[in-house]
Amino acid sequence: MKIKSTVERNCSFHKMPSAPSNTPNYLTIPAGSTLELEDSMWNSSFANSPSIAASLSNGSLVMVEHAVSPVSVEDMVALIKDQAGVTLDSALEKAAVQDLAMKLGVDLSAKLPKKKK
User: To 10 degrees, the CA torsion angle through 10, 15, 20, 21?
Assistant: First the structure.
């Protein structure tokens, strides 16, 4: 995954409490730079950070390349249906489903909807 700072100062974000112990305590993105991280580190340590989400929301950070979600295609399809009301075929490629979820504003970290019996 790649993330870019659009501001003229360094941005630092603390790792999430659930992050593995070998993760650095802070993610620092130098002013105006693009930082590349392993998808596994991003997903386990920083992806759910409210501070990073706020910076992405206000344009201080821009996702250049999204990390591959650890969520399965079937679970993404269920989340898209639940949150956006769009029905997808679970035979689609993961990258395509993830891209559509992002475009629809679907929160892939949300709890899955309960299955109807």
Answer: 80
Structure tokens given for 50: 């409210």
Q: Taking the model in full, what pTM does it have?
A: 0.73
Closest CA to 78 of 57, 101, 61, 95: 101
Domain ranges within the chain, ordered by starting residue: 2-65, 68-117
Residue 21 CB neighbour total at 10 angstroms: 5
Per-residue pLDDT of the chain (117 residues; tens, 9 = 90+): 999 999 999 999 999 999 999 999 999 999 999 999 999 999 999 988 999 999 999 999 999 998 998 899 999 999 999 999 999 998 999 989 999 998 898 888 778 877 765
Q: How far is CA 102 from CA 33, 52, 98, in A?
A: 23, 16, 6
Q: How far apart are CA 85 and CA 67, in angstroms?
A: 24
User: Rounded distance, CA 18 to CA 7, Å?
Assistant: 28
67 to 8, 35, 95: CA distances (angstroms): 25, 12, 10
